[in-house]
Amino acid sequence: MKTLITGLVAAGALAMAAAPASAQNLKTLALVVKGLDNPYFDLMHQGCERANKELKENGYTCYYTGPATAADEGAEVQIVDDLLTKGVAAIAISPSNAPAIAQLLKRRKTNIPVITADADFLKKDRDLRKAFVGTDNHELGVDLAKQLKKHMAKGGKICLVLGNSAAANINERAAGTRDELSGKEGTEKLTGQNGWTEISGCPLYTDDDAAKGNQMMADTLTANPDLDAFVLEGGWPLFAPQAYTQVTNPIKGKIESGDFVIVSADTLEPEMQALKDHRVNALVGQRPEQMGYDAAMTMMKLAEGKSVENTIYTGLDTCTWDNADNCLKGSK
Question: What global pTM score does this model have?
Answer without folding.
Answer: 0.85
